[in-house]
Amino acid sequence: MDQRNIQQEFQDQFNDVVSRLQSKQMFQSDWDIASFAIFFIFIGVVLTLVLLVLIRCCCCCCGCCDDEKVRTLRLKSTAVMSLV
């Protein structure tokens, strides 16, 4: 009996989506619009973070960020700061 309830609920939701598509009114309430906006903001943030990670990985892999140069600059800057 529980399986029939799940099937009926799924069918009702499917029919609701189909009826919204047919009426060309996907957003029938303010909550629909807000949830849609929040979803796309979330997807945008995730894609931005993935892009930043890829940029960081490519920068480290290409060899343009030499670790010895960075360490030397850090040592020089800390030595200058300790003199001041």
Automatic annotation (TrEMBL):
Record's subcellular location: Membrane
Membrane topology: Single-pass membrane protein
GO terms under cellular component: membrane
InterPro entries linked: SIM_Modulators (IPR053081), SMIM5/18/22 (IPR031671)
An example Gene Ontology biological process: regulation of cell population proliferation
Main location: membrane
Keywords annotated in UniProt: Membrane, Transmembrane, Transmembrane helix
Spans traversing the lipid bilayer: 33-55
Protein name in UniProt: Small integral membrane protein 22
Organism, scientific name: Xiphophorus maculatus (Southern platyfish)
Lineage, opening ranks: Eukaryota, Metazoa, Chordata, Craniata, Vertebrata
